[in-house]
Amino acid sequence: MKEIKSIVNAYHSHSERAALATVVRVEGSSYRRTGARMLVFETGVWVGGISGGCLEGDALKRAKMAILKDSPSLVTYDTTTDDDHQIGVGLGCNGIIDVLFVPIDKTDSHNPIKLLEDTLHFPEQNHILITITKAPENAKNLLGKIFRYNKAPDLKPLSGYSDLETLAKSIENLEKSKNLFFENGLNVYVELVPKPIKVYIFGNQYDLYPLADLVLSLGWDLFIVSEKSKIKEQLKSHVLEDFKPEMLDKNSAILLMSHSLNTDKANLKSTLPLNLPYIGMLGPRVRAEKIWHELEQEGAEVNTQNIFAPVGLDIGATTPDEIALSIVSEIKMVFANRSGEHLRNRPLPIHDREQPMIFK
Q: Which residues form the signal peptide (predicted)?
């Protein structure tokens, strides 16, 4: 989401023509995955990225060509071959990356940047963007078309290629972005743009500031539950004085760090019934157990499965900045459904391998 924000901001701050480069398919290994983007202006200024830096040079040329020709194109980078003429050869990534280059028409209210901007205006919901990455000879004008999906009628651009009701059900059941291949030569990238993680910090002590900075640097949404007068000026806009538990959802992580046992206990009690995926409690385990025990004596049902106390991963953190790093890493681990172990001990690839869906 942070990259989308940067691209949208750059789009509005530059007047020259531009093209959007998007990774729409990855086979094997790559530094970035599908959905990675870079916005390139005709002056050569660019924002975002599609790789670790190895493909950006060629991507700049391809984007400028898309602007010049005012025509989209799909480029395949193959780092698995020994062809010296192939961009990216010798990198050792051993992957195939399809990148779609689409010139941006600023007069089009539904251009790709505008669609991305819409996802920022409605952060409380997930979004589905559909991009046509390959079109048959008799429908070349479809290449590069991007539209947002909400319900079956939105798939009208794909009519004639598949039964739209069946296709709609398949899209709605997807749990992550996926490529759809149609036997008649049409390829579609269905991108799920998730809601950003929302972090609620209950507290107003000095140790919230490095944590808040790190949360914001990741592009997550930050809410500080406190009296505004107790928070420094740079974070006052994130203060939530009228907090209500019903504001929380399955995309929320809460951190109880008021340094007051009774305050943390009250806040935990109000949020326990919501069964949130992540509740972090600052302080030693014995403190957390005392709170749990008191709540149980008062009749509350305490399920500690989703309570992380002491909060954070075991990285030897001692300073507020290091503790913030351990907390944010743990939040990411939970929401990504990962173990937090060393990647070198992971028997599977770092990223899940995508299997495209084939439609008749």
A: none
112-121 vs 2-13: helix crossing angle, rounded to 10: 120
Q: Cis peptide leading into 310, omega within 30 of 0?
A: yes
* Pair of tokens at residue 95: 């992957």
Encode pLDDT of 68-79 as tens digits.
999 999 999 887
60-74, 144-158, 235-249: segment of lowest average pLDDT: 144-158
**For residue 84, pLDDT beyond 60:** no
Identify the helix (H) or strand (E) that includes residue 10.
Answer: helix 2-13
Q: Quote the CA–CA distance of 279 and 304 in Å, as a whole number.
A: 9
The Cα–Cα gap between 4 and 94 comes to: 27
Average the pLDDT over each of 112-116, 183-187, 303-307, 334-338 and give the range with the smallest value: 183-187
Report the interhelical angle of 261-271 vs 285-297 (nearest 10°).
Answer: 60
Sketch out the chain's domains with CATH numbers: 2-103 (no CATH), 122-195 (no CATH), 198-335 (3.40.50.720)
Runs of H (alpha helix) within 70-135: 112-121
Q: Which amino acid is at 151?
A: K
Q: pTM for the full model?
A: 0.83
